[in-house]
Amino acid sequence: MKFLRDLKNDYYKSRFSLHEDFAEWFLKRKLGFWGKIAFAYFLWSIWLLLFTYPHYAVFFFYGVFIVSLVVIVLEWLNNRKQR
Fold it and tell me: Of 2, 59, 60, 66, which is least surrounded by CB within 10 A?
């Protein structure tokens, strides 16, 4: 856990702006060339697993649609509660 705590502290100290999230900071500043290549292959393999068969792609977009609806409803309820 010390490694994660040190990584978090390093992130807060060396990020460029408040709008730079952890993933962007990690990809730009912490991963070297081979780390970025490994990350790209990881994303590519996820893409291949999800979109090899058409029904996987349909279920993926169905899940994205459901999650989007949940987020919209939660945001709407939060805004309504604040008024």
Answer: 2
